[in-house]
Q: What sequence folds into this?
């Protein structure tokens, strides 16, 4: 198999390289011989991958092998696409296009039949990126026409479009991954369903929340809507009622955990709920200002707070583990975080900020995870001794 991929690398990197184009036989028989040679090596690689898969002695190496091949094939496709863009010679363009199809077929084969090992976080090849850019640009234009007259939906389509046009301008081209592609395809598929009223989601807003389109512009849009609604009210009590009503709505809202625009950011639903909670907390303090006595406050803290030999980051990880492990069964995770922030203190922080604990809960630090793992292993040892 190594010989097969080595032959493909030689064909792409040496034989058909633009610098060597003058020595290529571009006649029909010459091109056919070259393409047949590449196709033969690709078929050999496909067969050998199957044999390798069923070799029990190499099972542990298989995921690494597939991902190495995937990365290498994407590099070969990017090189061929670059060659194609650099020439105006029709025979060369045809040659590069045919090789792109053959090598791309190998990548599709790996993606289809070895999907458990396929790396979704790898960038998509440039030729596929170029094709999909044009396809989605057309889909976006069609959606704008179909949502014409539905002002809110159209405004949100513009937000979706601005995000993907950012990629299409090549600014983030190198980071557009297969995972991004899966999300984008599902988003546009369901947007078309909303446009034809065949979706359970009656508006683009509902769909974007369901698919966790956690883009900063969508967050700002949602917050601006909330502020616009309660700013026209005169009393704090009325504003609180509006915020609590929307808090209830967002808590009950369904979202799809398997889809997310930015996997490293907090889900959109939780971002909005966090903002609402902060607003409610601020307004309630304005309505019922709490009397503050330094002596009394210190005494209460000493009596009511639980001391833990953890950092705030480690406490956040521990709470997350207990929640994911169904030890803590409360449905409202934000309330759980608030309770821990109010009733615990670490060896470094006398008062734990709710915002700090919240942030570290959803974006755990690697060092904190490692520290909590060590503590849990020590607890296992203790329970064994007991």
A:
């Amino acid at each position: 198999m190594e010989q097969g991929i080595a032959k493909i690398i030689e064909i792409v990197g040496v034989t058909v390289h633009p610098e060597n184009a003058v020595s290529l036989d571009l006649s029909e028989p010459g091109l056919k011989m070259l393409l047949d040679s590449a196709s033969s090596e690709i078929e050999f690689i496909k067969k050998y991958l199957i044999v390798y898969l069923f070799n029990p002695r190499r099972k542990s190496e298989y995921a690494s092998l597939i991902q190495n091949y995937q990365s290498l094939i994407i590099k070969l496709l990017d090189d061929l696409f670059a060659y194609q863009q650099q020439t105006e010679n029709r025979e060369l363009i045809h040659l590069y296009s045919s090789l792109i199809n053959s090598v791309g077929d190998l990548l599709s084969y790996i993606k289809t039949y070895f999907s458990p090992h396929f790396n979704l976080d790898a960038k998509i090849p440039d030729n596929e990126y170029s094709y999909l850019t044009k396809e989605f640009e057309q889909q976006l234009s069609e959606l704008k026409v179909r949502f014409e007259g539905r002002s809110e939906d159209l405004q949100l389509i513009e937000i979706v479009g601005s995000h993907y046009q950012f990629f299409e301008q090549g600014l983030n081209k190198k980071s557009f991954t297969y995972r991004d592609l899966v999300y984008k395809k599902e988003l546009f598929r369901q947007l078309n369903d909303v446009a034809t009223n065949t979706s359970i989601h009656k508006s683009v807003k509902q769909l974007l929340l369901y698919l966790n389109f956690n883009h900063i512009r969508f967050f700002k849009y949602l917050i601006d809507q909330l502020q616009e609604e309660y700013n026209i009210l005169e009393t704090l009590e009325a504003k609180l009622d509006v915020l609590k009503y929307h808090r209830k709505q967002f808590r009950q809202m369904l979202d799809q955990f398997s889809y997310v625009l930015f996997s490293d950011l907090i889900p959109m639903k939780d971002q909005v709920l966090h903002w609402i909670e902060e607003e409610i907390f601020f307004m309630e303090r304005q309505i019922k200002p709490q009397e503050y006595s330094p002596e009394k406050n210190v005494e209460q803290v000493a009596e009511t707070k639980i001391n833990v030999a953890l950092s705030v980051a480690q406490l956040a990880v521990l709470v997350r583990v207990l929640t994911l492990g169904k030890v803590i069964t409360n449905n409202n995770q934000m309330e759980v975080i608030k309770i821990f922030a109010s009733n615990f203190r670490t060896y470094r922080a006398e008062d734990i900020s709710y915002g700090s604990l919240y942030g570290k809960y959803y974006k755990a630090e690697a060092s904190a995870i490692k520290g909590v793992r060590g503590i849990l292993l020590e607890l296992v040892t203790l329970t064994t001794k007991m």
User: Anything to note?
Assistant: Residues 53 and 61 are 10 Å apart (CA to CA). The radius of gyration is 28 Å.
